[in-house]
Structure formats: C-alpha cells, structure tokens
Amino acid sequence: MFKRFLKICLLISVLPSPSFSFQANSSTLITNNPKEIIDQVWQIIYRDFLDYTGKYKPEDWIKLRKEILSTKYFDNEDAYIAIKDMLADLDDPYTRFLDPKEFNEMRIDTTGELTGVGIQISLDELTNKIIVVSPIEGTPAFIAGIKPKDIIISIDGKSIEGLSIDSTVKLIRGKKGTKVELGIMRDDKLLNVSLIRDKIEINVVDSRINNTFLGAKIGYLRLKQFNAKSPKEMSLSINKLEKQKPYGYVLDLRSNPGGLLEASIEIARQWINTGIIVSTKTNDGITDVRKAQSRALTNRPVVVLIDEGSASASEILSGAIKDNNRGVLVGKKTFGKGLVQSVRSLPDGSGLTVTVAKYLTPSGKDINKNGIEPDIKVELFFNDKNKLENSDLGTLKDSQYTAAENILLKKFRVESSKNSYKPMKSNLEFALKK
Description:
Blueprint: E1 5-10, E2 19-23, H1 34-48, H2 58-69, H3 76-88, E3 96-98, H4 100-109, E4 113-116, E5 119-124, E6 129-135, H5 140-143, E7 151-155, E8 158-159, H6 165-172, E9 179-186, E10 189-196, E11 198-201, E12 205-211, E13 217-223, H7 230-242, E14 248-252, H8 261-271, E15 276-282, E16 285-291, E17 302-306, H9 313-323, E18 328-331, E19 339-345, E20 351-360, E21 376-377, H10 382-387, H11 399-420, H12 428-433
Parallel strand pairs: 2-19, 13-14, 14-17, 17-18, 18-21
Antiparallel strand pairs: 1-5, 3-20, 4-11, 5-6, 6-7, 7-8, 7-9, 9-10, 12-13, 15-16, 15-20, 19-20
Helix pairs in contact: 1-2, 1-3, 7-8, 8-9
C-alpha cells in the first residue's frame, strides 16, 4: 500500500512543500480582528482549496462559516485554535496554518539560510511514526551519524508517541548552541543521540568533473534541495563544468525532498531548450502550462539519478527531462508528491499553506501517489548504503552512479567508433594504428 509521508525539515521550521509559491493576501493591512482572520482562512479554502481526498464538501464548509462567525473569540490565540480545528476537517496535512513566528521562520527557510540540527523527517501516516528521511550533510545530525529510516521515539527523554509533526518540530528546534537528545530506533536497537543546534549554511549544489578510463570527462552535479539560491548555484556550476568540455552529465536528485516550484522550473530551463516543463491542474482544470524558453545552458547528454526520496520539485525536473527525451532516468521510483501549495499571508503576520493544484508532467502524468519510474532501475546495494560516505556519492563506489556513468560511456564509445575511422579520409593512418 502506498505510504504517504509529510516531509519536514527540522531547521528553523517546516521546509515548504516542493511545489510551493508565496502569494501575498491583498487585504493584509486590514485588521487584527480574530474573527476576520478566521473568515479570511475560510474564504481562501472555499475559493482555492483542491480536494484530492474526496472528504471536502462545499455545503458543509458553508454551514461551518455560520458557526465560526457566531462564536466569540477573545484574542488571536483563540482564532488560531479555531483555524486549526477547521483545517483538520480537510484531512490534508499540506494545508496548514502557521502562527506569526512559524510563518516568518518559513520565509527564512526558503532563502537557504537555516538554523537547527539539519535533519529531514517524515510522518508515516499509517504507523504515525516520525521517520528520518535523511540528514543534511555537514550538519550536527549528519556528523552524529543519524541515518535514513531511523525512527525518532523520544526527545530529551520524553516519548513523542502521538505527537503531531508540528509538535515534534517545536521540540527539536531551539537556539544555536543548545543541546537536544533524540531517542532513535534503528534495526530494533535503541540509540540516544545528543545534538548541538547550530546555524546551517547549505550549498545546494555539489559539482565536479570525473575522469573515466576511456578518457571521457563526466560532469557530476548533485542538487540537494530547491530553494531561492538553487537556480543561480546550478547555472554557475553548469557553466563552470562546461568550460572543461565534459562528454555528458550525471544529475543527482536522490533524497532531494524538493522546495520551491519556481526554482524547479528555472533549473529545468537550464537543461531543456524547448518543450513543456510542467502543467498545473486546479478546480477549474489545467490553468497554467510552464515551458522551456530556448535558453538551456548545455545540450550534452544527461543521466538523472532518482530514488524514493526524490520528491515534488525533484519530480517536476526529472519528469520534464524524461518526457522531453532530454535524458535517461536511473535509480528507483520517486516519492510521488504531486500537490501544489500556495502560501497566503494573513493580517496579523500569520500565514496559511493551502493545497491549490496538482501538477502534471509534460505527457500529462499525475505524479501524486504515483511517482516517476526510472528508465533503468538500479538499486543502491544494501552494503553500499551502510558503507557509503558522503564523499563516495558520485564515485565508482556508488552503484547507481556507476550505472549512470556506464550509460554515458556506452554512448561515448559508439560516437567515438564512428569518428575514429573514415575510409579515404585523412585519419586513415590513425585507424591503421588501431
């Protein structure tokens, strides 16, 4: 059975959903009246919410408005409680209310300037367990040895059983230099891991040239998330590698949980010269089709690495590359998070993330819960998972990368053989020496 997870980055606050756009509310300067704040949330849901579970009924939502407006609220805290109760009925973990502090922290998160322990987690909605997706390399969690699929069962010695994802985030968050202890279950063993919270500066793109035994250079680019800095970092990295004239590229999107929708579109345009990148489908049908703009930074062959941790914005990018026949996808099926959230600011500085659409790949494939299938399935061998260090990713110790490199080298061999010998041409002497 498909397991739906809610991905959150324990840095300052939640990491925005990968298909994520900020949208200011036109009436943000009206008032701090609690009832007006509640009514604005009600209006946004009634107008824009995309129901993908089948549990939202407009007639019930209309009845709810009469009830909430007839209730007396003493302050904004009362309003916040009422709003959260309203949204809980939608049964959509991605449509969420954030108080002013949380909303401000979310805005900071999207800039790529983060503070915390550097761990990405998921809520398994079937078991209600908090599961580690991956630690961010170089962060306290990464250095302490936190691993994907670790189950967090306690924080500072207190059980988190039954806690929501937001409550868990608040317990782990804290000031720089303070300590937090996580109780971890790994392979039926209990581990207590102490972490010191710190400022986390993330370079979202790792890049280098890998030299191969055939003499072909392979450009390796690993994209860790889609934040406001990602498009610029990616373009700088591609342009730097292009100067070294690689034969092709391996673009690594493994364990990339996504980020900003616009970042994924801009990065796709750096790889794809023409064609559709993504379309969005709202309650009114397909309302937005985003296309390439004839400004790709390279036309060299590319192989994209994906896995079950590649979500949303990663799926937009990998789906666009696949459907436009721009490259080959290698690895495992992606996460399957194809919902678009819009962020709305409210009059008192609080905010709302609301599911407003689902996105489709260029061929019209619905990603949500389905994911993107690789063209070539390759496992990251179990022993490799346990032994691979971060420095081993994108090397011959990495079985999925090796498969990607071999695809490029096979193509390189074919092209080299065509160009190495042409009868009656000036390279005849070279061919005879072979």
